[in-house]
# Entry
Amino acid sequence: MSTRNMSTSKFAVAGATGRLGRHVVDVLTERGHQVVPMSRTTGVDVITGEGLADALVGVDVIIDVASWHASDQEAATKFFRTATGNLHEAGLRAEVDRIVAVSIIGTDKATAGFVAAQQVHEEASLSGPLPARILRAAQFHEFVGQLLDWRQGDVARIPALPTQLVACRTVAETLVDLAADPGAALPGPGVPIPEIAGPRTEIMSEAAKLLGARRGIEVVGVDGSGMPDGDIAAVGGFLPSSHAELAGPTFREWLDTQF
# Structure
């Protein structure tokens, strides 16, 4: 275990150029921490391990927000298992103090798709040699635009399912709070995995209609029977737990800052 002074923490961010990673780097920088952005564009590959050893020299904490780019469960599972294992092994050799990873609210209930793949991510994080903490987040506000981008044809058919959308920036702030706290409790019996979600429940299709109106895209709400675990989502299975922190702007408030 490293004995470096945590008042001068140095953080390595895996997935630093991604949707969430960019915000994590910004928050760390604004708070005066040293930051090592890790992504393939900076010469670090968490799958092959290329560049990891050099990037982790002198690092105190790894923040793992690296993610697979598609929803396929098998490919995402393989990515998380490999990347998490590499981060732990390289971090142990570099005498990193701990690793903090982001996951998704409801992953423990999921049976299919990308959310279910996060089960492997969490298990690999918690079973590795480094002390690990996890933050589960609700779907991002930014995810709504991705759903519109995935539409086939002129009309976007979006599931009318409950969600508690949260801003990426809010997740980044909460994740950095957790990562910077050496006394944060490790998950275990009686210690639930912390969660971060937006301030209120939203309906995904209604949020998409708000964005669609600004982009000139027609949005139609549909039931979620065609999506993985749509039945679980329909009854609120992916909404935050009672211990979740609720913070940040509503989707409408966030949208007003984007246009």
Remarks:
- Residues 1-6 have pLDDT under 50 and may be disordered.
- The longest helix spans residues 73-93.
- DSSP finds nine helices and eleven strands in the chain.
